[in-house]
Amino acid sequence: MTVIQQVSVDRMKIIMFLPLLLLVCSFSADETETAGQQPCPQDIHAVLRELTASLAVQNERITVLQRENQELEAKLESQKTEMNQLKQLSEEQAGKLKTELQNQRTEANQMKQQQHVTQVAFSASLLEQGYGDTGPFNGRTTLIFKHVVTNIGNAYNPYTGIFTAPVRGAYHFDWKVLGRDSTHTGAYLFRNEEKIFFAYETQSTGWPSASNGASVLLEVGDQVSVRLWAGSRIYDNTEHHTTFSGHLIFTM
């Protein structure tokens, strides 16, 4: 039980006791008159004054305690609000810290990926094993260089014969083709569907061969391939005569 509740109980006891006291005093007065004695109004008034003073004190105590209780409740509410603000601030700071850590991880991964991307080089020959001719075909045909010697960065696909630029930059490519028992042999270097350079050789007998090289600017996703000239036939064996190579010179 709180102090305010206790004071209220005391006050109620006094209020409840007052009518009873008045009744007793009235009864006593009647008996006194009956007995031929005069009542003592001064005693009744003294009791009433004491009760009234006690009630006033109790009322004052209740008022003070109520004010103190209101101040305490206001203080607790203020502390609760402050705690909520601190909690919210802590959550915001934690969110900002989490976001900053994620950004740092993303940046580190991008730097790591960029470091790997800047290391791009490949070299491959036409046949994986054995020997034989490729062509002739009616149209330009993409050559698939299956025997991969180097493929740093995995930008060259040995199943399609296509090199895909992983980063914007300047690249250099070399290609060579060897013919057999043919008067001519040749192959183009293509960037996407754009013909860049042509390597071509013709001779009446023997083994005609042709080679060329080019440095080109590639955007991310650009594709580079070597395509056999229509009607041309090329040859390769375990000596790897027909080749395709390329590497990144620098990023841009």
From TrEMBL:
The answer to whether the entry has keyword Acetylation is no
A GO cellular-component term linked to this record: extracellular region
Localization of this protein: Secreted
Domain C1q, residue spans = 115-252
- List each coiled-coil range: 48-114
Q: Please state the span of the N-terminal signal peptide per the UniProt entry.
A: 1-28
Sorted UniProt keywords: Coiled coil, Secreted, Signal
A Pfam family annotated for this UniProt entry: C1q
| UniProt name for this protein | Complement C1q-like protein 4
What is the originating organism of this protein? Maylandia zebra
